Amino acid sequence: MNEKHLKRLLVAVAVAALLTGPAAFNACGYSNADSTDPPATGPVPGLTVTPGNTQITLSWDPVPGTTSYDIYWKVSSTSSNRLSRTGKVQFQAKFDATVTQAFWIHNGLHNGWTYTYCVVTAGSAAPPDCSTVSGSPSSGFPCLAGAACQQVCRTAGLVSCDGGCVNLANNATNCGACGNGCEAGEICSSAACIAASSVACTAPTTNCGGGCFDLKTSVSNCGACGNPCPVGASCQFAQCACPVGQTVCGGVCVDLMTDINNCGACGNSCANIVIFRSGIYDRVVAPQPACSAGRCNVR
């Protein structure tokens, strides 16, 4: 083989290596030797929400080749100062474009409000039909898989009984133990049910239903056991007394000069007032009734 033929052979080998080697690229710009597909775009698969206390955790299936995601969200509530939208979701905020893991925790939320989310690969526009998930955070949150939910009473001396925190030392329904109720005429004292009449009180207190009360000052037993004072009144020298300028109406101390339900006299409501118009009396419902100096009027 002469030198001319040898050069032609070497050139042919080099060209073949370029066409079949790892450096060859197809028309899309990806290597023929690289079997990895280009990163997917659009909504992520498997998007779920887990509500918590003032927070929601988003999780989804990782997208091969994707290193960051965009999160879109909206919020709706029944609060008068928020817009509650219906129909097709319109996302109001692109919240974070730098999330790199397949989960994200949205903190600082309002319990009871509904939050809706769409997650797409970074750089993708959120299409109108983007698959969405919604959740409402709450003060109660789900336990981890396999765990049981148990109420924890944070106040010292209280234990959880039937969903409530009680003191077993003095709770007549749970005396000494959850579900151990005392009989009629008994009270729970030092975690034991005893006869209410057996409680010994020291002067100047009197035994009233198993409790010791001073009948001269007790608003629940004023002057005698079982004689409660009206709401807002105090017990002074065994007599119930409303604050100065107030009168008892329906068991409550009220000011007849300003109370719209007892304006000028007990039971005189300003909800329906009579006004004089062109010589004819008309009964109308006042949108904002008021009581001033014992007389009803409209603001």
- The CATH topology assignment of the largest domain is Immunoglobulin-like
* Radius of gyration from the alpha-carbon trace, in angstroms: 38 Å
CATH architecture descriptor of the largest domain: Sandwich
* Arrangement of strands in the largest sheet: 4-3-6-7
Q: Mind describing the biggest β-sheet? A: 4 strands, antiparallel
Helix content: under 10%
Q: Average pLDDT value?
A: 75
What structural class do you assign from the helix and strand content? mainly beta
Number of strands: 21
As for the number of domains, it is: 4
| Order of SSEs | HEEEEEEEEEEEEEEEEEEEEE
* CATH homologous superfamily designation of the largest domain: Immunoglobulins
Task: Please explain how this structure is put together.
A 4-stranded antiparallel beta sheet has the order 4-3-6-7, with no helix packed on it. The chain has a 3-stranded antiparallel beta sheet with strand order 1-2-5, with no helix packed on it. Strands 8-9 form a two-stranded antiparallel sheet. The chain is about 5% helix and about 30% strand. With about 300 residues, the chain is mostly beta strands. The chain has 1 helix and 21 strands. The chain has 4 domains: about 50-135, Immunoglobulins (Immunoglobulin-like), CATH 2.60.40.10; about 160-200, no CATH class; about 200-240, no CATH class; about 255-299, no CATH class.
Top keywords for this entry?
299 residues; Immunoglobulin-like; single chain; 6% helix; mainly beta; 1 helix
Write the layout of secondary structure elements.
Blueprint: H1 3-20, E1 48-52, E2 55-59, E3 69-76, E4 93-99, E5 103-106, E6 114-121, E7 133-135, E8 159-161, E9 164-166, E10 186-189, E11 192-195, E12 206-208, E13 211-213, E14 234-236, E15 239-241, E16 247-249, E17 252-254, E18 272-277, E19 280-285, E20 289-292, E21 295-298
Antiparallel strand pairs: 1-2, 2-5, 3-4, 3-6, 6-7, 8-9, 10-11, 12-13, 14-15, 16-17, 18-19, 20-21
